[in-house]
Every structure is written in C-alpha cells, then in structure tokens.
C-alpha cells in the first residue's frame, strides 16, 4: 500500500456509527464504500458520513481501492464475510468475537495465511490511552508484581435498548461472547495467555422479548447462559475472577482491578478508550484503611474511538511490523470464551490449548490524527 489505506465497511448497523465517526477523520485511511445486505441502509450511512459509495457486500469485496475490509456483521456471519474478503485479496478487521467457535476462527486464520493477508480483531478499546497508560504503568512496576485481577460487567440486558437483540442471546452471544471479549482481551494484554478456566452459568429466563423499536413485544428464545462467574488461570501464574451478566437489575460495568505486591490499580472500563485510573496503596493501620483514598494516575495519549485497531493495522502493514490486535489474539480470546462455555456445561476446570504472544504496549506518543502514510 502507498498513500492512505483504503477502507470498506460491511455491516451498516448500530456499531457502524462509531466506526465511521473515527475512520472518516483519521488522515491515514480513506473509507471508500459501505456495504450491507440492506442496500438502502448502506447507502444512507455512506451519504451521512460522506463516503463515496454505498451498496451490497460485493460492492465492498470488488472495490479496487479497498485494502482493509471492516467486518461489522453479526457474529454468526463473521466467518463467511471474513473469508470472502480474504479470498478477494483484502485484509480484514473484524468486530468481536473472531467467530462463533474455534473451528470457524481457525478457518479465518487459515484463509488469511493462504491469501497472504492479515486479520485484526476487536476489541480495540484496550488500545486506547486509558488502558494503555495503565498497562505501561504496571509494566514499569507501579504496583510491584501483578498477581491477580477482578473484573465484572452486569446489567438487565441489551434487549432494553436494541431493536433487534435476538443475536445477543443466541449462539455466539450472551454476556460471555458479547462483553467477555473486552475483559478477557484486556487480561491477556496484561498477563499473557490463559492456561485454564472454571465457570458456573445460568439463565434467569428461557425467553425474553424485544422492548424497543418496531418489533417491541416480540418474544425470542434465550439460547445461552446469561449470568456467569468465571475463574481464570494464566500461563504465567496469575489468576482472575470475573462476573458477566445480562440478568441483574443493578447496572455495574467496567470493573477491572489489578492487584500487585505493592498496590492495586483500578483500570478504566475496557469497553471505552479512556477513563480514570486509580492507584491504591496498602494502608499502615486500621485508621488508614478506613480513610483510604486512591491516587489518580494521569492518562497519557490521544483520545479516540472504534477503528483505532484498524488504523494501527494499516500503519503496521505499511511499516512492515505486526499490528497489535492480531487475529491470533482474537483466536486465543475466542478459545478462552469457548472454554468458559465448556466449563459451565461440564462443571469442571477446562485447559485452554492455544497460546499467544503478549501484545506490546502502544507508544505514549501514538497519534491517530497524524498523517504518517
């Protein structure tokens, strides 16, 4: 590639708004086309964001100026769309999860290898300045040796806000596959490969109904666990505990605490690109515990949003380096998610077979709004 990197987006649903907000202003990329099964929807999105063309899926796959296809389809379609894009000679950035199961994820990676193309996988929120500032601080020893983490996400579920929530309660959905990638990808960014998991899971209801939009009142089945408690072991020896739920009236999200030998660091919500970082030090006595207050760690880096991972991949291709949110990382997170689901079914500890290199930190001076290509 030379000059700006050409982008084509497949999937013009809700999440495309966030991607287009950023990809249309990064100087290193140009969005040429938006495609969707609903051509009218794709055309409307293209017109709204000043993109030259809206059309169907083939309009993206066949576009001569598209270098990277952004796959924003539902999880069940990730494999089909990603493989088609790779076979069309495009690199692929896909929303999470990489696929709905290991076999499909492996077929995507195999197709990339056969085509000599790259795959990147969301979430890229953990590449934002909030998480990356914390990652660099931990690596520099701010809390001593990190040995454990606690994460959590819970609320009443996406059917309260999404006009078509069925897929979020079907295979490849639920809080595990919908929100789990943010937390487990974050943990892998900090601790490296997961070696095993144990989990319990259940459902508060076997059927739910659409609550907003033209389908309001329509019932749909709940096919996957919607409340899970997970224990995670890492190959390097750390451990974590996680709560993921679509079944609680209380809305508590973004819990991400890392405990070290010299303190605890509270990280920003891994579903966002920035946020407060709080440092707690051990208290000297009981009075100190009662009066404990955190120190704020200043966030360093330019604030941005979704599409950051695709931008890093575009620059990495041009620079001849590995991008940060690789398909292999996405596959390892998928392997962890499937292992959690298996642990729920088997009520047993499940070994995670795959391994991945711990991603490097984003440089503190990384500027998504600079022209580098």
Question: Topology, please?
Answer:
Blueprint: E1 5-10, H1 14-23, E2 29-35, H2 39-48, E3 53-55, H3 57-61, E4 68-71, H4 78-87, E5 91-94, H5 102-115, E6 119-121, H6 129-139, E7 146-154, H7 174-178, H8 180-191, E8 194-202, E9 207-209, E10 219-221, E11 227-234, E12 239-245, E13 252-260, E14 263-266, E15 278-280, H9 286-290, E16 295-296, H10 308-319, H11 327-346, E17 350-351
Parallel strand pairs: 1-2, 1-4, 2-3, 4-5, 5-6, 7-12
Antiparallel strand pairs: 7-13, 8-11, 8-17, 9-10, 11-12, 13-14, 14-15, 15-16
Helix pairs in contact: 4-5, 5-11, 8-11
Organism: Arenivirga flava
GO molecular function: nucleotide binding; oxidoreductase activity
InterPro entries: Gfo/Idh/MocA-like_OxRdtase_N (IPR000683), Gfo/Idh/MocA_oxidrdct_glycsds (IPR050463), GFO_IDH_MocA-like_dom (IPR055170), NAD(P)-bd_dom_sf (IPR036291)
Please characterize this protein's 3D structure.
There is one protein chain. This protein is α/β, with parallel strands linked by helices and 373 residues long. It has two domains: 5-121, 3-Layer(aba) Sandwich (Rossmann fold); 126-296, 2-Layer Sandwich (Dihydrodipicolinate Reductase, domain 2), CATH 3.30.360.10. The protein contains eleven helices and 17 strands. The chain has helices spanning 14-23, 39-48, 57-61, 78-87, 102-115, 129-139, 174-178, 180-191, 286-290, 308-319, 327-346, and strands spanning 5-10, 29-35, 53-55, 68-71, 91-94, 119-121, 146-154, 194-202, 207-209, 219-221, 227-234, 239-245, 252-260, 263-266, 278-280, 295-296, 350-351. The strands form three sheets. It has a nine-stranded mixed sheet with strand order 16-15-14-13-7-12-11-8-17. The chain has a six-stranded parallel sheet with strand order 3-2-1-4-5-6, with helices on both faces. A two-stranded antiparallel sheet has the order 9-10. Helix 5 packs antiparallel against helix 11 (327-346) and helix 8 packs across helix 11. 48% of the residues are buried.
């Amino acid at each position: 590639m030379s000059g700006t990197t050409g982008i084509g987006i497949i999937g013009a649903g809700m999440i495309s708004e966030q991607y287009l907000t950023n990809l249309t202003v990064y100087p290193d990329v140009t969005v040429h086309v938006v495609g969707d099964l609903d051509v009218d929807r794709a055309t409307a999105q293209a017109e709204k964001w000043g993109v030259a063309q809206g059309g169907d899926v083939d309009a993206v796959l066949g576009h001569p100026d598209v270098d990277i296809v952004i796959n924003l389809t539902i999880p069940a379609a990730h494999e089909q769309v990603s493989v088609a894009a790779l076979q069309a000679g495009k690199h692929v950035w896909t929303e999470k999860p990489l696929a709905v199961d290991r076999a499909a994820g492996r077929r995507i990676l195999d197709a990339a290898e056969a085509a000599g193309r790259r795959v990147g996988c969301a979430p890229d929120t953990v590449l934002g300045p909030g998480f990356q500032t914390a990652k660099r601080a931990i690596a520099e020893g701010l809390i001593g040796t990190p040995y454990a983490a606690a994460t959590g996400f819970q609320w009443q579920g996406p059917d309260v806000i999404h006009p078509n929530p069925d897929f979020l309660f079907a295979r490849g959905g639920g809080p595990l596959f919908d929100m789990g990638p943010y937390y487990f990808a974050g943990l892998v960014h900090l601790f490296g490969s997961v070696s095993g998991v144990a989990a319990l899971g259940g459902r508060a209801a076997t059927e739910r109904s659409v609550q907003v939009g033209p389908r309001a009142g329509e019932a749909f089945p709940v096919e996957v666990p919607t409340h899970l408690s997970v224990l995670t072991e890492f190959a390097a020896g750390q451990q974590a505990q996680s709560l993921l739920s679509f079944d609680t009236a209380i809305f508590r999200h973004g819990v991400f605490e890392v405990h070290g030998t010299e303190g605890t660091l509270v990280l920003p919500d891994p579903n966002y690109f920035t946020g407060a970082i709080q440092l707690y030090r051990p208290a000297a006595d009981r009075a100190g515990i009662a009066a404990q207050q955190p120190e704020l760690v200043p966030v360093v880096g330019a604030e941005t949003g979704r599409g950051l991972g695709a931008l890093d991949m575009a620059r990495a291709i041009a620079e001849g380096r590995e991008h940060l949110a690789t398909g292999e990382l996405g596959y390892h997170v998928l392997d962890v998610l499937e292992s959690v689901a298996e642990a729920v079914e088997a009520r047993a500890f499940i070994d995670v077979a795959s391994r991945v290199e711990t991603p490097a930190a984003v440089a503190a001076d990384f500027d998504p709004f600079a022209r580098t290509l």
